[in-house]
Amino acid sequence: MVVKKEVCNKLSDQEIIQKSLEDLNYFACLYDRYEPKLLRYIKKISMADHEEASDILQDAFIKMWKNLNSYDNRLKLSSWLYRIVHNETISYCRKKRSFGKNNKLDVEDIRLADLPDEQELEVDPEMRFFLTHEILNKLALKYREVLVLKFMEKMSYEEISDVLKIPEGTVATRMNRAKKMFKTIAKKENISFIG
Amino acid sequence: MKNSETLISKMKDQNLKPIPKWRFTLKGMAVGFILLISVILGGLAFSVVLFSVQQLGFDLITHMSHSNIEFLLGLLPFLWIVLLIIFLILGMISFKNSRKGYKFSPTKLLIINTAFSILLGTLFFIGGGAQWLENVFAVKIEIYESINEKKISMWSVPEDGYLSGTIESVNEGTLNLVDFNNKEWTIDYQKAHIPPVVLLEEGEVIKLRGKMSSAGHFLADEVRPWGGNKGFGKKRKEK
Asked: Is the ipTM above a cut-off of 0.95?
Protein backbone atom coordinates (compact mmCIF):
# COMPACT_ATOMS: atom_id res chain seq x y z
CA MET A 1 0.00 0.00 0.00
CA VAL A 2 1.53 3.32 -1.08
CA VAL A 3 2.09 5.84 1.70
CA LYS A 4 0.58 9.21 0.85
CA LYS A 5 2.87 12.14 0.19
CA GLU A 6 1.20 14.23 2.92
CA VAL A 7 2.00 11.53 5.46
CA CYS A 8 5.63 11.28 4.26
CA ASN A 9 6.13 15.04 4.43
CA LYS A 10 5.27 15.10 8.13
CA LEU A 11 7.91 12.55 9.01
CA SER A 12 11.60 13.22 9.68
CA ASP A 13 14.27 11.03 8.09
CA GLN A 14 14.74 9.13 11.33
CA GLU A 15 11.01 8.52 11.69
CA ILE A 16 10.83 7.19 8.14
CA ILE A 17 13.66 4.76 8.92
CA GLN A 18 11.87 3.56 12.05
CA LYS A 19 8.56 3.14 10.29
CA SER A 20 10.23 1.40 7.33
CA LEU A 21 11.46 -1.34 9.62
CA GLU A 22 7.84 -2.00 10.54
CA ASP A 23 6.29 -1.35 7.12
CA LEU A 24 8.44 -1.47 3.98
CA ASN A 25 6.12 0.92 2.14
CA TYR A 26 7.45 3.83 4.21
CA PHE A 27 10.84 3.29 2.60
CA ALA A 28 9.39 4.81 -0.56
CA CYS A 29 9.09 8.12 1.32
CA LEU A 30 12.87 8.23 1.69
CA TYR A 31 13.34 7.45 -1.99
CA ASP A 32 10.92 10.16 -3.11
CA ARG A 33 12.52 12.68 -0.77
CA TYR A 34 16.07 12.14 -1.97
CA GLU A 35 15.62 10.93 -5.54
CA PRO A 36 16.12 14.27 -7.36
CA LYS A 37 19.28 15.22 -5.43
CA LEU A 38 20.85 11.79 -5.58
CA LEU A 39 20.10 11.32 -9.28
CA ARG A 40 21.73 14.66 -10.01
CA TYR A 41 24.74 13.64 -7.95
CA ILE A 42 25.09 10.29 -9.73
CA LYS A 43 24.94 11.95 -13.14
CA LYS A 44 27.48 14.58 -12.20
CA ILE A 45 30.16 12.25 -10.94
CA SER A 46 29.62 9.38 -13.35
CA MET A 47 28.32 11.19 -16.44
CA ALA A 48 25.75 8.39 -16.70
CA ASP A 49 22.50 9.00 -18.56
CA HIS A 50 19.15 9.19 -16.79
CA GLU A 51 18.30 5.51 -17.19
CA GLU A 52 21.69 4.34 -15.92
CA ALA A 53 21.53 6.79 -13.03
CA SER A 54 18.08 5.49 -12.04
CA ASP A 55 19.38 1.93 -12.06
CA ILE A 56 22.31 2.93 -9.88
CA LEU A 57 20.00 4.73 -7.46
CA GLN A 58 17.66 1.74 -7.18
CA ASP A 59 20.61 -0.57 -6.44
CA ALA A 60 21.90 1.92 -3.88
CA PHE A 61 18.54 2.03 -2.08
CA ILE A 62 18.39 -1.76 -2.01
CA LYS A 63 21.82 -1.74 -0.43
CA MET A 64 20.63 0.88 2.04
CA TRP A 65 17.67 -1.29 2.99
CA LYS A 66 19.85 -4.32 3.57
CA ASN A 67 22.28 -2.29 5.69
CA LEU A 68 19.68 -0.24 7.52
CA ASN A 69 20.67 -1.73 10.87
CA SER A 70 24.25 -0.53 10.40
CA TYR A 71 23.18 3.11 10.27
CA ASP A 72 24.66 5.09 13.14
CA ASN A 73 22.31 7.95 13.99
CA ARG A 74 25.25 10.07 15.12
CA LEU A 75 25.90 10.49 11.42
CA LYS A 76 23.53 12.62 9.32
CA LEU A 77 21.23 10.37 7.34
CA SER A 78 21.84 12.38 4.18
CA SER A 79 25.61 11.80 4.53
CA TRP A 80 24.98 8.08 4.93
CA LEU A 81 22.70 8.03 1.87
CA TYR A 82 25.22 9.92 -0.23
CA ARG A 83 27.96 7.57 0.94
CA ILE A 84 26.07 4.48 -0.24
CA VAL A 85 25.08 6.13 -3.52
CA HIS A 86 28.65 7.26 -4.06
CA ASN A 87 30.03 3.76 -3.50
CA GLU A 88 27.40 2.23 -5.76
CA THR A 89 28.19 4.74 -8.49
CA ILE A 90 31.91 4.01 -8.26
CA SER A 91 31.23 0.25 -8.49
CA TYR A 92 29.04 0.80 -11.51
CA CYS A 93 31.67 2.96 -13.21
CA ARG A 94 34.38 0.39 -12.59
CA LYS A 95 32.24 -2.36 -14.08
CA LYS A 96 31.36 -0.30 -17.07
CA ARG A 97 34.92 1.06 -17.49
CA SER A 98 33.45 4.13 -18.99
CA PHE A 99 32.44 7.34 -17.37
CA GLY A 100 29.75 8.12 -19.88
CA LYS A 101 32.06 10.36 -21.83
CA ASN A 102 29.84 10.09 -24.88
CA ASN A 103 26.78 11.16 -22.95
CA LYS A 104 25.83 14.78 -22.83
CA LEU A 105 24.27 16.36 -19.86
CA ASP A 106 21.12 18.41 -20.25
CA VAL A 107 21.73 22.12 -20.33
CA GLU A 108 19.64 22.47 -17.17
CA ASP A 109 21.96 20.08 -15.42
CA ILE A 110 24.98 22.07 -16.50
CA ARG A 111 23.88 25.57 -15.61
CA LEU A 112 24.48 26.24 -11.99
CA ALA A 113 22.90 29.42 -10.80
CA ASP A 114 24.16 28.90 -7.33
CA LEU A 115 27.88 28.65 -8.08
CA PRO A 116 30.18 29.90 -5.34
CA ASP A 117 31.48 33.42 -5.21
CA GLU A 118 34.59 34.06 -7.21
CA GLN A 119 36.50 34.49 -3.98
CA GLU A 120 35.72 30.91 -3.06
CA LEU A 121 36.56 29.46 -6.41
CA GLU A 122 39.42 31.84 -7.20
CA VAL A 123 38.68 31.98 -10.90
CA ASP A 124 38.19 34.78 -13.40
CA PRO A 125 34.87 36.58 -13.17
CA GLU A 126 33.60 35.35 -16.54
CA MET A 127 33.81 31.75 -15.31
CA ARG A 128 31.69 32.43 -12.30
CA PHE A 129 28.17 31.61 -13.51
CA PHE A 130 28.64 28.77 -15.92
CA LEU A 131 30.39 25.43 -15.41
CA THR A 132 30.71 23.20 -18.45
CA HIS A 133 30.52 19.44 -18.36
CA GLU A 134 33.72 19.34 -20.47
CA ILE A 135 35.75 20.74 -17.59
CA LEU A 136 34.19 18.41 -15.04
CA ASN A 137 34.71 15.46 -17.33
CA LYS A 138 38.40 16.24 -17.65
CA LEU A 139 38.96 16.19 -13.92
CA ALA A 140 39.91 12.96 -12.18
CA LEU A 141 37.03 11.43 -10.26
CA LYS A 142 38.48 12.24 -6.82
CA TYR A 143 38.59 15.94 -7.70
CA ARG A 144 35.27 15.96 -9.54
CA GLU A 145 33.40 14.45 -6.61
CA VAL A 146 34.64 16.99 -4.03
CA LEU A 147 33.70 19.89 -6.34
CA VAL A 148 30.26 18.44 -6.93
CA LEU A 149 29.61 17.76 -3.24
CA LYS A 150 30.85 21.16 -2.15
CA PHE A 151 29.47 23.49 -4.77
CA MET A 152 26.47 21.62 -6.09
CA GLU A 153 25.28 19.58 -3.13
CA LYS A 154 26.28 22.37 -0.73
CA MET A 155 28.00 20.12 1.74
CA SER A 156 30.44 21.14 4.44
CA TYR A 157 33.91 19.64 4.60
CA GLU A 158 32.78 17.49 7.51
CA GLU A 159 29.86 16.12 5.51
CA ILE A 160 32.09 15.46 2.50
CA SER A 161 34.48 13.62 4.81
CA ASP A 162 31.57 11.45 6.02
CA VAL A 163 30.35 10.73 2.48
CA LEU A 164 33.71 9.86 0.99
CA LYS A 165 35.12 8.36 4.22
CA ILE A 166 38.33 10.37 4.03
CA PRO A 167 39.88 12.77 6.57
CA GLU A 168 38.80 16.41 6.41
CA GLY A 169 42.39 17.39 5.67
CA THR A 170 42.31 15.22 2.56
CA VAL A 171 39.02 16.86 1.52
CA ALA A 172 40.65 20.28 1.80
CA THR A 173 43.72 19.18 -0.16
CA ARG A 174 41.64 17.69 -2.96
CA MET A 175 39.46 20.79 -3.06
CA ASN A 176 42.47 23.07 -3.52
CA ARG A 177 43.89 20.89 -6.25
CA ALA A 178 40.50 20.56 -7.93
CA LYS A 179 40.09 24.34 -8.03
CA LYS A 180 43.55 24.81 -9.51
CA MET A 181 42.98 22.11 -12.10
CA PHE A 182 39.59 23.53 -12.98
CA LYS A 183 41.12 26.94 -13.58
CA THR A 184 43.99 25.51 -15.59
CA ILE A 185 41.75 23.39 -17.80
CA ALA A 186 39.27 26.20 -18.37
CA LYS A 187 42.02 28.56 -19.45
CA LYS A 188 43.66 25.94 -21.63
CA GLU A 189 40.37 25.01 -23.31
CA ASN A 190 39.52 28.66 -23.72
CA ILE A 191 35.97 27.93 -22.66
CA SER A 192 33.60 30.88 -22.82
CA PHE A 193 31.03 31.56 -20.16
CA ILE A 194 27.74 33.29 -19.84
CA GLY A 195 27.94 36.04 -17.23
CA MET B 1 4.31 3.87 -11.75
CA LYS B 2 6.71 6.00 -9.72
CA ASN B 3 10.30 4.89 -9.33
CA SER B 4 9.80 4.48 -5.59
CA GLU B 5 6.88 2.14 -6.18
CA THR B 6 8.96 0.12 -8.62
CA LEU B 7 11.67 -0.13 -5.99
CA ILE B 8 9.29 -1.26 -3.22
CA SER B 9 7.70 -3.78 -5.55
CA LYS B 10 11.11 -5.21 -6.46
CA MET B 11 12.11 -5.42 -2.80
CA LYS B 12 8.90 -7.22 -1.90
CA ASP B 13 9.26 -9.67 -4.81
CA GLN B 14 12.78 -10.53 -3.69
CA ASN B 15 11.67 -10.62 -0.05
CA LEU B 16 14.62 -8.47 0.92
CA LYS B 17 15.21 -8.04 4.63
CA PRO B 18 17.70 -5.84 6.50
CA ILE B 19 20.75 -7.66 7.77
CA PRO B 20 20.27 -8.26 11.53
CA LYS B 21 21.85 -5.71 13.79
CA TRP B 22 23.81 -8.32 15.74
CA ARG B 23 25.96 -9.02 12.66
CA PHE B 24 27.09 -5.42 12.50
CA THR B 25 27.66 -5.37 16.26
CA LEU B 26 29.72 -8.54 15.97
CA LYS B 27 31.76 -7.08 13.13
CA GLY B 28 32.40 -3.93 15.15
CA MET B 29 33.49 -5.99 18.14
CA ALA B 30 35.80 -8.10 15.96
CA VAL B 31 37.46 -4.97 14.55
CA GLY B 32 37.83 -3.57 18.06
CA PHE B 33 39.28 -6.83 19.32
CA ILE B 34 41.84 -6.99 16.51
CA LEU B 35 42.81 -3.39 17.22
CA LEU B 36 43.25 -4.09 20.93
CA ILE B 37 45.29 -7.25 20.31
CA SER B 38 47.48 -5.44 17.78
CA VAL B 39 48.25 -2.66 20.22
CA ILE B 40 49.00 -5.11 23.04
CA LEU B 41 51.16 -7.39 20.91
CA GLY B 42 52.86 -4.37 19.39
CA GLY B 43 53.58 -3.22 22.91
CA LEU B 44 55.05 -6.60 23.84
CA ALA B 45 57.26 -6.61 20.74
CA PHE B 46 58.41 -3.09 21.52
CA SER B 47 59.25 -4.06 25.10
CA VAL B 48 61.56 -6.82 23.87
CA VAL B 49 63.19 -4.41 21.41
CA LEU B 50 63.76 -2.09 24.39
CA PHE B 51 65.21 -4.97 26.36
CA SER B 52 67.50 -5.77 23.46
CA VAL B 53 68.66 -2.17 23.25
CA GLN B 54 69.30 -2.19 26.97
CA GLN B 55 71.34 -5.37 26.78
CA LEU B 56 73.11 -4.86 23.48
CA GLY B 57 72.53 -1.32 22.30
CA PHE B 58 75.53 0.55 23.57
CA ASP B 59 77.70 -2.50 23.07
CA LEU B 60 76.60 -2.52 19.44
CA ILE B 61 77.91 1.01 19.01
CA THR B 62 81.23 -0.07 20.53
CA HIS B 63 81.49 -2.96 18.08
CA MET B 64 80.68 -0.98 14.98
CA SER B 65 84.20 0.09 14.27
CA HIS B 66 85.51 -3.45 14.56
CA SER B 67 82.98 -5.99 13.42
CA ASN B 68 81.59 -6.51 9.97
CA ILE B 69 78.08 -5.54 8.98
CA GLU B 70 76.89 -9.12 8.78
CA PHE B 71 77.85 -9.79 12.36
CA LEU B 72 76.25 -6.59 13.55
CA LEU B 73 73.04 -7.25 11.65
CA GLY B 74 72.91 -10.69 13.21
CA LEU B 75 72.81 -9.07 16.61
CA LEU B 76 69.69 -7.04 15.95
CA PRO B 77 66.42 -8.45 17.34
CA PHE B 78 64.95 -8.84 13.86
CA LEU B 79 62.08 -11.07 14.88
CA TRP B 80 60.79 -8.49 17.33
CA ILE B 81 61.29 -5.56 14.98
CA VAL B 82 59.37 -7.42 12.25
CA LEU B 83 56.61 -8.36 14.71
CA LEU B 84 56.39 -4.76 15.88
CA ILE B 85 55.99 -3.53 12.29
CA ILE B 86 53.36 -6.22 11.55
CA PHE B 87 51.30 -5.35 14.61
CA LEU B 88 51.57 -1.62 13.94
CA ILE B 89 50.25 -2.16 10.40
CA LEU B 90 47.50 -4.48 11.64
CA GLY B 91 46.52 -1.93 14.24
CA MET B 92 46.37 0.82 11.64
CA ILE B 93 44.20 -1.27 9.31
CA SER B 94 41.74 -2.22 12.04
CA PHE B 95 41.60 1.37 13.32
CA LYS B 96 40.92 2.59 9.78
CA ASN B 97 38.02 0.09 9.57
CA SER B 98 36.43 1.29 12.79
CA ARG B 99 33.42 3.61 12.67
CA LYS B 100 35.33 6.85 12.85
CA GLY B 101 38.70 5.58 11.68
CA TYR B 102 38.37 7.26 8.29
CA LYS B 103 38.61 10.67 10.00
CA PHE B 104 42.31 10.06 10.69
CA SER B 105 45.03 10.33 8.10
CA PRO B 106 47.48 7.37 7.77
CA THR B 107 50.16 9.46 9.50
CA LYS B 108 47.94 10.18 12.49
CA LEU B 109 46.90 6.52 12.68
CA LEU B 110 50.53 5.48 12.72
CA ILE B 111 51.43 8.03 15.39
CA ILE B 112 48.49 7.05 17.64
CA ASN B 113 49.11 3.33 17.24
CA THR B 114 52.85 3.69 17.78
CA ALA B 115 52.33 5.89 20.83
CA PHE B 116 50.07 3.30 22.47
CA SER B 117 52.49 0.47 21.66
CA ILE B 118 55.43 2.46 23.03
CA LEU B 119 53.53 3.31 26.21
CA LEU B 120 52.37 -0.26 26.82
CA GLY B 121 55.74 -1.65 25.80
CA THR B 122 57.63 0.63 28.15
CA LEU B 123 55.38 -0.31 31.07
CA PHE B 124 55.81 -3.99 30.30
CA PHE B 125 59.58 -3.55 30.02
CA ILE B 126 59.79 -1.73 33.35
CA GLY B 127 57.74 -4.51 34.94
CA GLY B 128 60.29 -7.08 33.79
CA GLY B 129 57.88 -8.62 31.30
CA ALA B 130 60.23 -8.22 28.35
CA GLN B 131 62.95 -10.37 29.86
CA TRP B 132 60.38 -12.99 30.88
CA LEU B 133 58.87 -13.09 27.37
CA GLU B 134 62.26 -13.31 25.73
CA ASN B 135 63.20 -16.21 28.02
CA VAL B 136 59.98 -18.03 27.15
CA PHE B 137 60.86 -17.77 23.47
CA ALA B 138 64.42 -18.91 24.12
CA VAL B 139 63.19 -21.96 26.02
CA LYS B 140 60.17 -22.96 23.91
CA ILE B 141 61.41 -22.21 20.40
CA GLU B 142 64.49 -24.18 19.43
CA ILE B 143 65.53 -22.06 16.47
CA TYR B 144 65.15 -18.80 18.38
CA GLU B 145 68.41 -17.11 19.26
CA SER B 146 67.91 -15.22 22.49
CA ILE B 147 69.30 -11.79 23.24
CA ASN B 148 71.58 -13.40 25.78
CA GLU B 149 72.95 -15.71 23.09
CA LYS B 150 73.51 -12.73 20.82
CA LYS B 151 75.26 -10.98 23.65
CA ILE B 152 77.53 -13.94 24.24
CA SER B 153 78.38 -13.97 20.51
CA MET B 154 79.26 -10.31 20.68
CA TRP B 155 81.45 -10.69 23.76
CA SER B 156 83.23 -13.89 22.80
CA VAL B 157 85.63 -12.59 20.18
CA PRO B 158 88.92 -12.32 22.09
CA GLU B 159 90.91 -11.92 18.86
CA ASP B 160 89.04 -8.62 18.38
CA GLY B 161 89.39 -7.63 22.02
CA TYR B 162 86.02 -8.78 23.40
CA LEU B 163 85.90 -11.40 26.13
CA SER B 164 83.36 -12.48 28.73
CA GLY B 165 82.83 -15.19 31.28
CA THR B 166 82.72 -16.12 34.96
CA ILE B 167 85.46 -15.16 37.45
CA GLU B 168 87.09 -18.25 38.96
CA SER B 169 89.58 -16.55 41.24
CA VAL B 170 90.98 -13.05 41.87
CA ASN B 171 94.59 -12.15 42.53
CA GLU B 172 96.47 -8.89 42.81
CA GLY B 173 96.33 -7.36 39.34
CA THR B 174 95.13 -10.54 37.65
CA LEU B 175 92.12 -12.80 37.71
CA ASN B 176 91.24 -16.19 36.29
CA LEU B 177 88.20 -16.37 34.05
CA VAL B 178 86.28 -19.18 32.36
CA ASP B 179 84.61 -17.98 29.18
CA PHE B 180 81.27 -19.22 27.75
CA ASN B 181 83.14 -21.78 25.68
CA ASN B 182 84.63 -23.17 28.91
CA LYS B 183 88.10 -21.94 28.01
CA GLU B 184 90.31 -20.62 30.82
CA TRP B 185 91.90 -17.18 30.68
CA THR B 186 94.29 -15.17 32.75
CA ILE B 187 93.22 -11.54 32.76
CA ASP B 188 95.60 -8.69 33.52
CA TYR B 189 93.37 -5.90 34.84
CA GLN B 190 96.02 -3.63 36.38
CA LYS B 191 95.47 -0.84 33.86
CA ALA B 192 91.76 -1.47 33.27
CA HIS B 193 88.93 0.94 34.01
CA ILE B 194 86.64 -0.89 36.44
CA PRO B 195 83.41 0.83 37.56
CA PRO B 196 82.40 0.38 41.20
CA VAL B 197 79.45 -1.85 40.27
CA VAL B 198 81.91 -4.57 39.21
CA LEU B 199 82.66 -6.45 42.41
CA LEU B 200 85.54 -8.61 41.10
CA GLU B 201 84.60 -11.63 43.11
CA GLU B 202 84.31 -15.33 42.44
CA GLY B 203 81.28 -16.37 40.48
CA GLU B 204 80.68 -12.92 39.04
CA VAL B 205 79.95 -12.79 35.31
CA ILE B 206 81.76 -9.96 33.54
CA LYS B 207 82.63 -8.71 30.08
CA LEU B 208 85.96 -7.20 29.08
CA ARG B 209 87.41 -5.01 26.38
CA GLY B 210 91.11 -5.14 25.69
CA LYS B 211 93.63 -7.18 23.79
CA MET B 212 94.52 -10.83 23.61
CA SER B 213 98.22 -10.83 24.41
CA SER B 214 98.73 -14.57 23.81
CA ALA B 215 96.75 -17.79 23.94
CA GLY B 216 94.85 -17.84 27.23
CA HIS B 217 96.06 -14.36 28.22
CA PHE B 218 94.08 -11.14 27.97
CA LEU B 219 95.11 -7.58 28.76
CA ALA B 220 91.98 -5.71 29.88
CA ASP B 221 91.32 -2.00 29.16
CA GLU B 222 87.81 -2.09 30.59
CA VAL B 223 85.81 -4.44 32.78
CA ARG B 224 82.02 -4.25 32.90
CA PRO B 225 79.24 -6.18 34.63
CA TRP B 226 77.51 -8.72 32.38
CA GLY B 227 74.08 -7.26 33.06
CA GLY B 228 75.06 -3.65 32.23
CA ASN B 229 75.69 -0.72 34.60
CA LYS B 230 72.68 -0.85 36.86
CA GLY B 231 73.84 1.83 39.24
CA PHE B 232 72.18 0.15 42.21
CA GLY B 233 73.11 -2.64 44.56
CA LYS B 234 76.52 -3.59 45.95
CA LYS B 235 79.62 -1.68 45.00
CA ARG B 236 83.20 -2.87 45.07
CA LYS B 237 85.24 -1.69 48.05
CA GLU B 238 88.53 -0.14 46.92
CA LYS B 239 91.59 -1.50 48.71
From this structure: no
